[in-house]
Amino acid sequence: MAKRRLYPTSCILVVLAFCVVGATAVHNDKCYRQSRDALSHKEASAACVFMGGQLVDIKQSHEQQMLTDIIRNTNDVSHWTFIKSETPTLLHIDGSPMSLQSSWMAEDMYGPFDICVLLDRDQSYKGDFHAYHCAGNPCWSGGTCVNGPTGYTCTCPSGTSGQNCETVHNDKCYRQSRDALSHKEALAACVFMGGQLVDIKQSHEQQMLTDIIRNTNDVSHWTFIKSETPTLLHIDGSPMSLQSSWMAEDMYGPFDICVLLDRDQSYKGDFHACTEQHNYVCESPVTPCHPDVCQHGGVCKSCFSESPMCDCPPGYTGVFCETDINECASNPCQNGGTCLDRVNSYVCACRIGFDGDLCENDIDYCDPNPCPTSWTCVDQVVGFHCEVPHGAKAASTFCMASPCGPGWTCEDTGLRTGYNCIPVS
Ligand SMILES: [Ca+2]
C-alpha cells in the first residue's frame, strides 16, 4: 500500500515550487507561491519544504480553479502537485512481474518508473500523470530531456555524460547548476540533492571543471570556499567592529566573501561577495545502486541519491541497458543482402553471386577460368557462361558431359554457343 509523504502539520504555507518572484496568493487562509524554475518532482518537494511549506496538495476543485487562474495569468506552464503515484507494475513478456523495488515507501527516494501528477497546461490544467523526470527537466549542465517509454534520456553537452548530464571524474560525480544563486543558497541546493558544493582540492579537478564549464554555459561558478570577514578600517585607520559570522555553520555575514571560478579570470579562483548570484557546481561520491536495475551486464552507479545510472556494455542502450541496439538499422548490407542483428555487431547473409562482409563483392566466376581450355568464360550475375571457341565442332548438348561439376546446374545455350553453369542455391 502506498504511503503518502507527510509534512509537519504546522505548515500553513503551501507552495507550488521553488524560488519565488512575487506571484504569491492567499486563499482560504493558505498562502501559495508559484515557482520561477522547473524542477523534478523530487526537487520541487524539497524546495517547498526548504522554504517552510510543502508542495501544493489540491483537495478541492475551487482550489484547483484558483491556481489555474493564477497560472494562466502568469507564466502559463504546467506545475507539479503533491501526488506521486505508486511505481507502476511492469511485466516481463511472460506476464510475470518485474522485481523492481517500489521506492514510494521511502521518504526520500523516487524509483525510475515513478509517475507524478501535473497540472497539465496541455490538458487545461486538469491533473495528468507524468514521468517525474522530463517534466521537471532532470538534465543538468544544459542537457535536453527526452521522455521514453521506460524513463527519459538526456542529450548532454560535450564533456558531460551520465543519466543526468553529470560528469564522473575520479569516482566523483559533478553537476552544473541551471540557475544562479547566492553562495548560501547554492550550498543548500547541493545538500538538498544529496551532495555538496564543489570543493576543489587539485589542479586537475579545476581544469576538468573549467573545460566542462567552457563547453556548456561558460559563466562563473561558486566553489565551496568562504573566507573570513575581511578587516574593514575606519578612515582614521581604526578597525571597524563587525562580528565575524564565518564561525557559524549556517550564517553568512554581510561582508563575507566567497570563492568563484571566475569566467573573467580564465576560471581561476577569485573573491566575490557571497551575496552575489552565480551558477554553481555540486559534487557527490559515486556509489553502487540498490537495487541493481541494470540489465545485460550494465554497471549500476548512483550519485546525488538519485535514480540509477547504467553504464551499458557495447551493443546495449536504454536507461537500464534493456535495448539491444539494432546494428542493422542503417541497412549496411549491399546488393540485396539480408542483415542479421547480433550483440554489438551484425552479419550479412549475401544473395547468391555476392560475397564480402557487406556483400559488396560481385563474385567473378571466371577468375580463374573454369571453362575448358581455349573456351571463353563470361561472368554472369549468378554463375557463368562458357562459350565455344570459333571453329570448334558443332554441338548443342555440352551438358551431357556434366562440365559444371557437383553443386552446379548446367544449361545448354544452343548450337555453337556453349552452356551456362548456375550454382545450386
Ligand atoms: Ca544488436
> What is the CATH superfamily classification of the largest domain?
Mannose-Binding Protein A, subunit A
Bound heterogens, unique: calcium ion
The geometry reads as: elongated
Q: Tally the helices.
A: 5
Q: Number of folding domains?
A: 4
Query: What gyration radius follows from the Cα positions, in whole Å?
Result: 34 Å
- The chain-level mean pLDDT equals 75
Bin the strand percentage. 25-35%
Question: Which regions contain 5 or more consecutive residues with pLDDT less than 50?
Answer: 1-23, 86-93, 95-109, 242-250
Keywords: Disulfide bond, EGF-like domain, Glycoprotein, Repeat, Signal
GO biological process, one term: Notch signaling pathway
Domain EGF-like: 130-166, 285-322, 324-360
Protein name: Fibropellin-1-like
